[in-house]
Design goal:
Layout lengths: L1 H11 L6 H5 L5 H7 L12 H11 L4 H19 L6 H16 L8 H6 L6 H14 L11 H9 L3 H14 L2 H16 L5 H17 L6 H11 L5 H15 L9 H13 L9 E2 L2 E2 L1 H11 L8 H17 L6 H20 L6 H14 L4 H14 L5 H5 L2 H7 L5 H14 L5 H12 L4 H17 L5 H17 L6 H12 L5 H13 L5 H14 L9 H12 L4 H14 L7 H14 L5 H13 L5 H8 L12 H10 L5 H17 L1
Helix pairs in contact: 1-3, 3-8, 4-5, 4-6, 5-6, 6-8, 8-10, 9-10, 9-11, 10-12, 11-12, 12-14, 14-16, 15-16, 15-17, 16-18, 17-18, 17-19, 18-20, 19-20, 20-23, 22-23, 23-25, 24-25, 24-26, 25-26, 25-35, 26-28, 27-29, 28-29, 29-31, 30-31, 31-33, 32-33
Length: 678
């Protein structure tokens, strides 16, 4: 539409209202102009006054000049609307102007009655302007929409197909709860009436979907399931596209009562897969309606695996045909369409609970071949879908691509590197944990800054997850944790080293190795604040285990040298560790005096917490029997109670989940299990 082009061009030139005002305009306002009716907004170019106004706005030299022109026009429109004798031409012209001003980002707080008044007009041109402007200017909660329900209903049940299209498209865009209560039955009649043209019925299906989302009680399986079965027998692919969208919306809420739709949907898939009775209008690069194929497979994912062998076989045959019959082609558009169908087939195969694992094996092999390709989009999708397919029964098959996925960590596209990290994290188990964690630690050095935080978090979680059992595994966890915090100090939180402290404290066999390895890394130059905090804590708690080879003064002097080079929080941990070292076996008067001088210096610092610790520790280390005093206050920490790792919670919060079919299905299974237990 011309008005859409003009407004879009003006906004691209930087004209229009402020960015904040434009941001507050409804999303998709531009697209509704041409998409909501399915018809051309012809006649706009013939409105001379509108064309002149748009040219004036476009020719404004500054935002101030544009604002002045818009305000002048708003004042003119306001005065014109007070005149009850406006002609049809004038009504359309002024409403189009209001709509254009609104799309530029300016507030339009009048004229709504005149806009919705056009909906009840008898002429198509006026009615079209009314529906278009109302769907953009008002949202479903606006009180003025109540005034047009009767007019919309008259258009829906009327005999003018163009009026029906306008009304149904309007309902599909802005229909709310009151529309659902008042119009659902009429929209159903239009949808199920075979005498109505397909373009109208298609719009009726989408309008009914909108109303169902606002009120789920309008479509009950007892009354609508049989109608849905009949609709799935339609031959027109346009109607089927709308009906499948409606079915997806229904079964995503609750599939019960619609199980008989499964073979019908499979019949549609077979028809498309075999290119049988498909009009030329629905062939996309010789591929029969790929968007409808995707919709069919997506709706089947909301159902449980069919118990009927015929239903199962119908689904598996189509999936097998897609998996084995899809190849790369040179045409990019056709390639995208082919792979959109293929990836949805993989999703469906992954959702089916079948004893025969052939489909899963074929899916994994297909996705693995995609990871090997050079096309970035295909590689990305291959990694993403392999990650989705990771499960106990598919893990071994996916692990064979481990080395290939590791190479993708160094791909030039960061989005591919992220998906490779996700897949390595998902495919890790007790057999390959050490290799994968080793790769991740090596990658930490060269990884992008904006991926290191997630990389560090997943590495820490994997190291802890597979550290159980033998002492060797626990030592491996300790080595990984120390190396990780040393290398990625800026990208780990306090929760990382807190978790290491909890695990080491609860494992007596790690006390001496933890203190020794921390001391060795400090001597080798490790100096990041996060690592110094961990090392100071470990040496303060478990440094006494080094009595056979290290004197307290040796590791205390290293921490004292670090004291001035680290931040306030790390200095607080160092003070606590030094106070504990004063009661370690082998500590002497020289160490106490050296530490006391440091306490005295920090007693006058501006940091309150640091100052308080310094004063208290100075007093405790300068009492007559300071060994007993320190021991009564700073004895070794007891074991921590077993608790869930905070790191995994942090990862769940960072990653989140999407409301797809897999999540819906999982939630249903959980709800059913809870009900059975209850």
């Amino acid at each position: 539409a011309n008005i859409r082009m003009w407004a879009s061009r003006d906004r691209a030139r930087g004209l229009g209202a402020s960015a904040d005002a434009r941001a507050n305009a409804p999303r998709g306002a531009m697209s509704k102009i041409s998409l909501h009716t399915g018809l051309s907004t012809g006649g706009v170019a013939g409105l001379r006054g509108l064309n002149i106004f748009i040219q004036d706005v476009r020719n404004s030299k500054s935002k101030e000049a544009e604002l002045e022109r818009v305000e002048k026009e708003l004042a003119n429109i306001r005065s014109k609307f007070k005149n009850k004798g406006l002609s049809s031409y004038e009504k359309k012209k002024y409403v189009w102007k209001l709509l254009y001003i609104f799309m530029l980002g300016y507030e339009v707080d009048f004229g709504h009655m005149q806009v919705i008044g056009l909906i009840s007009a008898t002429k198509f041109a006026e009615k079209q302007v009314g529906y278009t402007a109302t769907s953009v200017l008002l949202n479903e909660t606006h009180e003025f929409l109540r005034l047009v329900i009767n007019s919309v209903r008259e258009d829906i049940i009327g005999r003018h197909e163009s009026h029906q299209c306008l009304a149904l498209s309007f309902v599909a865009n802005v229909g709310g709860r009151e529309f659902a209560d008042s119009l659902a039955a009429d929209v159903q009649v239009v949808l199920t009436n075979s005498a109505v043209r397909p373009i109208v019925r298609k719009k009726a299906a989408l309008a009914l979907l909108r109303l169902f989302r606002r009120n789920r009680e309008i479509l009950l399986p007892e009354t609508f399931a049989q109608k849905m079965l009949n609709l799935l027998d339609e031959r027109d692919l346009g109607i089927l596209t709308g009906v499948i969208s409606l079915l997806t919306g229904i079964v995503s809420h609750d599939y019960r009562g619609y199980e008989a739709c499964i073979p019908k949907v499979c019949d549609v898939m077979n028809r498309l897969a075999r290119n049988k009775d498909v009009p030329l209008d629905y062939l996309y690069y010789a591929l029969p309606s790929p968007w409808l194929q995707v919709k069919c497979m997506r709706v089947l994912q909301y159902y449980p695996t069919p118990e009927d062998p015929e239903y199962r076989q119908a689904e598996t045959d189509v999936i097998h045909q897609i998996l084995t019959g899809t190849n790369m082609v040179r045409n990019v558009n056709k390639n995208n369409a082919l792979h959109s169908v293929l990836f949805e087939a993989v999703n469906l195969a992954n959702m089916l609970d079948l004893e025969d694992r052939t489909l899963l094996t074929e899916s994994i092999e297909t996705l693995g071949s995609f990871v090997e390709m050079e096309e970035p989009n295909i590689v990305y999708l291959g990694l993403q879908y392999l990650t989705k397919m990771v499960a106990p029964d598919t893990l071994e098959a996916i692990k064979q691509y481990e080395s290939l996925v590791v190479t993708r960590l160094h791909h030039g596209d960061i989005s591919i590197r992220r998906r490779a990290l996700d897949l390595l994290y998902a495919m890790c188990d007790g057999n390959n944990a050490k290799q994968i964690v080793g790769h991740l630690l090596t990658y930490m050095i060269t990884a992008d800054f904006n991926i290191r935080e997630e990389l560090a978090l997943k590495t820490a979680i994997l190291a802890e997850r597979y550290s159980g059992g033998s002492v060797q595994n626990k030592r491996w966890f300790l080595d990984v944790s120390l190396a990780l915090i040393e290398k990625a100090g800026d990208y780990v939180s306090d929760a990382h080293w807190h978790r290491v402290v909890q695990i080491v404290t609860n494992a007596p066999e790690l006390h001496e190795p933890a203190a020794r390895e921390s001391l060795a890394r400090l001597r080798d130059g490790a100096s990041h604040d996060m690592f110094v905090k961990l090392a100071a804590y470990l040496l303060g708690e478990f440094g006494h285990a080094l009595a056979a080879t290290e004197r307290p003064s040796s590791y205390a002097s290293i921490l004292m040298a670090m004291h001035e080079r680290v931040g306030t929080h790390a200095r607080e941990i160092i003070l606590s560790a030094l106070a504990k070292m004063c009661m370690h076996a082998g500590s002497d008067e020289a160490l106490r005096k050296m530490v006391g001088e440091l306490f005295k210096a920090d007693a006058s610092t501006a940091a309150v917490e640091l100052q308080q610790r310094a004063v208290e520790y100075y007093v405790m280390t300068n009492t007559k029997d300071y060994h007993a005093t320190l021991r009564s206050v700073m004895d070794q920490m007891p074991e921590f109670p077993n608790r869930e790792s905070k790191l995994e919670k942090n990862l769940e919060e960072a990653v989140g989940e999407t409301a797809d079919a897999a999540v819906v299905k999982r939630d249903r299974v959980a709800a059913t299990a809870t009900a059975v237990i209850a």
